[in-house]
Design brief:
- Helix content is 36%, strand content 23%.
- The protein folds into two domains: 1-81 and 168-247, Rossmann fold; 88-166, no CATH class.
- Helix 3 (97-109) packs across helix 4, helix 3 (97-109) runs parallel beside helix 5 (151-163) and helix 4 packs across helix 5.
- By secondary structure, the chain is α/β, with parallel strands linked by helices.
- The two termini are 34 Å apart.
- Bound molecules: adenosine-5'-diphosphate and magnesium ion.
- The site of magnesium ion has 2 residues, from helix 1.
Length: 247
């Protein structure tokens, strides 16, 4: 069993009387997609925020590559290779797709690019940005302004921006939201290819995508993981059918 790239140990987070995450532990191993599913309000986004570092747990630890990062900032965790998809709103609408990815590459390179003018043609930015676009099936859309991209292409572009930062782990919070069956199927294919390179913790309501992609599934309900296992185990679990999947 390969060592976990990401490990959560007993994460607790309360908002007043509400236990938003209640003793949550899980791991993410190289080469896998681990899906986290559960009803609205279960605590999935609260968990992601504790992993990314924007929210401090009341108790428990977050380990990245075996290192305890629980006390570290969002930026420090990102530098250690914790990647997450950007929100749609963070894409620069008038700029071509590739410029959006180049901004991410530039952020990774830090200060070394500050005095480079013009950066638009700098191969040190263009090449890794193009590579990230191609991995998300957007090579042919590099020059297209974000405003002209479809909803599905924007979701793929957000993942490309995260990939350009060369993450060791990718956190995706509902990447299929609003995509429709065709868009979901396309993004599913892209993620399937991606997982060999970077393991993904995937929060997703699209169960077809989850069952196709995830090696393991954890079910979060009211802040607690009520079931964990492969797709067949989760599909058959009566508690999960009751709390989430329905019949
Ligand atoms: P999910 O992503 O699974 O839909 P969330 O993590 O967004 O669930 O929310 C889990 C619970 O915590 C919900 O009941 C939500 O109302 C509550 N919650 C989330 N963030 C806060 C906050 N900053 N303050 C108070 N309550 C919060
Ligand atoms: Mg959420």
């Amino acid at each position: 069993m390969p060592e976990a790239v990401l490990a959560l140990e007993g994460l607790h987070k309360r908002f007043g009387a509400l236990a938003a995450t209640d003793d949550v532990s899980l791991t993410l191993r190289p080469g896998e997609i681990h899906a986290l599913i559960g009803p609205n309000g279960a605590g999935k986004s609260t968990l992601i925020a504790q992993i990314a570092g924007s929210l401090r747990p009341d108790a428990g630890r977050v380990l990245l590559g075996g290192v305890d990062v629980t006390g570290e900032s969002v930026a420090a965790r990102a530098r250690r290779g914790l990647g997450r998809s950007f929100q749609v709103s963070s894409l620069a609408e008038p700029l071509p797709a590739i410029r959006n990815v180049m901004i991410a590459v530039q952020a990774l390179a830090g200060h070394s690019f500050r005095f480079w003018k013009p950066v638009a043609r700098d191969p040190r930015l263009v090449e890794p940005a193009m590579a990230a676009l191609e991995r998300m099936g957007l090579g042919h859309r590099a020059a297209t302004p974000v405003a002209e991209l479809s909803h599905g292409e924007r979701r793929a572009l957000e993942v490309a921006c995260a990939l350009a930062l060369r993450p060791r782990v990718l956190l995706l919070d509902e990447p299929m939201a609003g995509l429709g069956p065709e868009g979901s199927a396309h993004l599913t294919e892209l993620l399937e290819r991606l997982k060999a390179e970077v393991p993904i913790l995937l929060i997703e309501h699209d169960m077809e995508a989850v069952f196709r992609l995830a090696e393991r599934i954890s079910v979060l309900v009211a802040g607690r993981i009520i079931a964990h296992g492969d797709g067949d185990t989760i599909r058959r679990d009566p508690q999960v059918r009751d709390a989430y999947l329905g019949d």
